[in-house]
Inverse folding.
């Protein structure tokens, strides 16, 4: 999808999303679970991953997910955060941090907030 010859990812320009990816790439490794969630969301949003990061659904668009799929994935992350998972406490904490990263990135991509995570 393009607007005035600018590629759009959700409601953000592709340039904004690639800048977010570059900003994460400049951070020291290893990445936290939260940062892993951010990376997964951004990579999926620009079409570098075919399966959605929360639901593992196939990407709807030919170059990445459509905004509706991003919104659905954002909702799925919110539900996963609220309900938790039936795992050990350590796994539950790690998964919650990753889901928070996914949710925060997807919410930004969908226009729920203006501050880039």
């Amino acid at each position: 999808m393009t607007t005035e010859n600018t590629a759009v990812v959700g409601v953000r320009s592709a340039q904004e999303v690639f800048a977010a990816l570059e900003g994460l790439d400049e951070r020291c490794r290893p990445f936290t679970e939260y940062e892993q969630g951010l990376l997964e969301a951004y990579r999926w949003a620009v079409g570098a991953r075919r399966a959605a990061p929360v639901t593992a659904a196939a990407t709807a668009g030919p170059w990445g997910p459509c905004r509706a799929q991003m919104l659905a994935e954002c909702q799925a992350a919110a539900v996963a955060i609220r309900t938790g998972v039936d795992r050990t406490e350590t796994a539950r904490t790690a998964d919650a941090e990753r889901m928070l990263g996914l949710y925060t990135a997807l919410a930004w991509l969908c226009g729920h907030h203006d501050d880039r995570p």
In short: Residues 89-110 form the longest helix (22 residues). The chain has four helices and three strands. The helical segments are 14-25, 33-45, 67-83, 89-110. The mean pLDDT is 87.
